[in-house]
């Protein structure tokens, strides 16, 4: 497989840095092609603004979505954005390696999403209106690719269980899994998570490393999270889940389809 690692941590000697290095060496030993975007090393520009468009008019009011669409289709995006898009199109599988800071991804990685996910590339594709509302949630230009989050968390695992004070981890990750990955068509496998990352000792690190390597060895055979497709009948004309499918349930889990086929093209 062609595997693209998007890595976001400012310290190369961090646990995240080690996991990134382990991923590269282990995946290459299995015969995969691997490329890495080390966002801090690249000094990635995280702020989305007018400078993202080579032909922007400084006197004109910025409409980022409109400018993004024009720049993507006219080939006038900045080179850094275009290169990351090429990596995404090249990849069969994407791994996002980052620490879970303040209930989300580091700002530099969010800025990568903001800028790389151009209109016409990751969203704004297909027909909009009526029963159909774009090629999104299981469809789109990135359909057929898979991804996994590899994250570290400072807190204890019980704090992130369904009754945990911090909230259920799968609910907290929903905006990334469902919104940033499934939205443009990327299928998602369950995350690899290391809890209490700041207090990990050598014994637990060794154990977690073995778990991580096993996850890396089974990327393509691990069942994906069964999110529902937007355009295959589960949602009504307002893109609301049909009442008969809710069946008394509540919360974000209603967007899971347990009859889902593990094939993004079906």
Automatic annotation (TrEMBL):
<keyword id="KW-0560">Oxidoreductase</keyword>
<feature type="domain" description="Flavodoxin-like fold">
    <location>
        <begin position="1"/>
        <end position="210"/>
    </location>
</feature>
<protein>
    <submittedName>
        <fullName>Flavodoxin family protein</fullName>
    </submittedName>
</protein>
<dbReference type="GO" id="GO:0005829">
    <property type="term" value="C:cytosol"/>
</dbReference>
<dbReference type="GO" id="GO:0003955">
    <property type="term" value="F:NAD(P)H dehydrogenase (quinone) activity"/>
</dbReference>
<dbReference type="InterPro" id="IPR003680">
    <property type="entry name" value="Flavodoxin_fold"/>
</dbReference>
<dbReference type="InterPro" id="IPR051545">
    <property type="entry name" value="NAD(P)H_dehydrogenase_qn"/>
</dbReference>
<comment type="similarity">
    <text>Belongs to the NAD(P)H dehydrogenase (quinone) family.</text>
</comment>
<dbReference type="InterPro" id="IPR029039">
    <property type="entry name" value="Flavoprotein-like_sf"/>
</dbReference>
<dbReference type="Pfam" id="PF02525">
    <property type="entry name" value="Flavodoxin_2"/>
</dbReference>
